[in-house]
Fold this sequence. Notes:
The protein is mostly helical. The protein has one domain (29-201): Orthogonal Bundle (Rna Polymerase Sigma Factor, Chain: A). The chain has ten helices and no strands. The chain has helices spanning 10-18, 32-40, 44-66, 69-85, 96-117, 132-135, 140-147, 151-161, 167-174, 178-201. α2 (32-40) crosses α3. The termini are far apart. The model is unreliable at 1-5 (pLDDT under 50).
Amino acid sequence: MPIEAEPVSAAAESLAVEHPLPARRQWRQRSEAALIRGAQAGSEADLEELFRRHWRRAYRTAFLIVHDHAAAEDIAQEAFLSAIRTLHRFDRRRQFAPWLGRIVANRAIDWTRARTARREVDRDLPDGPAPAELAGGYSDDLLRALATLTPEHRAVVVLRYVLEYTPGEIAKALELPRGTVNSRLRRALDALDAQLREVELT
């Protein structure tokens, strides 16, 4: 069966191109593998360095899914603590960022579902917006368009176009079939493009 081409849209370009996260790269200081070994051995300094390196990415992932500054901070911190508590199970042959990103995304989805279940407003920007340097400086129009998506659709868009996961990595992170990931991406990007076109016409 031929593999479907991945959808490309103006919304995706806005997320991925205008305000990209720093590219994944090897650090000039101690390697990540060395930090993880140190953290697994109980080094607080190595734990702090892992947190420093991954905090911005974790926070931005949470914020773009939940659209709430305080909640995003809590989710990012709780996800990091969860990762640290289970670090003994981490496969050091893998990268830490995708593993942490999976925890953040799943916690953010759960938080958004719970808020929706409590009948709180889930389609407006938060009263206290995130600091621009952390949230990425995305336009209010784009954030509002993202807020109209379900948390599941929001998550796949953020993982794909902000964190630059492949569809296969997203499928593993969210424990979904690859076809479901592709379907959610298509629907989410179609919805975002429609929202942004409507804004342009007003």
